[in-house]
Write a structure and sequence with these properties.
- It is built from 13 helices and eight strands.
- By secondary structure, it is of the alpha+beta class.
- A five-stranded antiparallel sheet has the order 4-3-2-1-5. A three-stranded antiparallel sheet has the order 6-8-7, with helices on one face.
- The radius of gyration is 35 Å and the shape is elongated.
Length: about 350
Amino acid sequence: MLRPLIVIGGTVLLTVVVGQLLDLLLRRLDARHPETPLWGLLRRCALPFQLVLATALLRGSYRQARVLPDHPREVGQALTLALIAATAWLLVRIANAAVDTAYVRWAAGTTDEARIRRVQTQVTLIHRVVSAAVVLVAVAAMLLTFPAMQAAGASLLASAGVLGIVAGIAAQSTLGNVFAGLQIAFGDTVRIGDTVVVDKEWGKVEEITLTFLTVRTWDERRITMPVSYFTGKPYENWSRGGAEMTGTVFLHLDHSAPVALLRERLQEVLAGIPEWDGRTGTLAVTGTTAHTMEVRAVVSAGNADDIWTVRCAVREQLIGWLAAEHPYALPRIATSPAVPPPGREGAAADGAGSS
């Protein structure tokens, strides 16, 4: 009765000691090499490593230790399944640490925000693909440990073609989204952090998976859409080709509005807005109607959030300045008699006197 307890207790103790030593070694390597986060990220592998070590030791010694001697087959099967699961977990952690290390070291030497977001999107998809592949292989290996599944292996392989066709037809939409997700990740059409407009909704891409994409709107709502939408339908990507943006502010004013003074005031307003990047700040009359004229101010900023702030500030301050300094420039409905053409004033007055 004591032998199983001694073996299990010794395995647990050995696993804990080895895990602590490994963690100590990784911490020292992380302190000596601050230029790479690899050793710090590998510390996340301590728990799955301990599980692999413990299950491997028990798997090799459970018969000699006489752990549940009446059920050796079941114990061996359970330990084998646990070993496969722990190994898959460890492999996923190691792969993620290696990919994250490569990304962090690359991003540290890059100042292009658009390229950083593109690679971040690709890294996220790589994590998911690696995890899915390892889990799939692990599940297949666990199933093949059962004798019934081994016996059915030949027939499964023989019918793999038919099953593949049936599965492809049944999961056509899902597979289409998976391939669309890979196309987005490595085709650089949309990235995490991009500002997009889809279905007349403005927001930022918050998450991209193999099957769906989440857009966070300005009012904190989350719109979840299949990634195939972004490969089959048009949408606006305001971050494509760089984060800088140009925006417009339209004002409808009376024809007597002082356009030259308004243009000067625009420059003064822009100089006081921190979000304005100084690239563009112009004003022109772009249209007219029977009662008003259309004035357009063109401004610029470093990103989509800043351009919204600049547009709102310009609109608010220009209207306030006109209302305070030039109220006649605001649109109004004319109720006075029409002004006669030049040279007709005197004739009209003579006609009125003679009558």
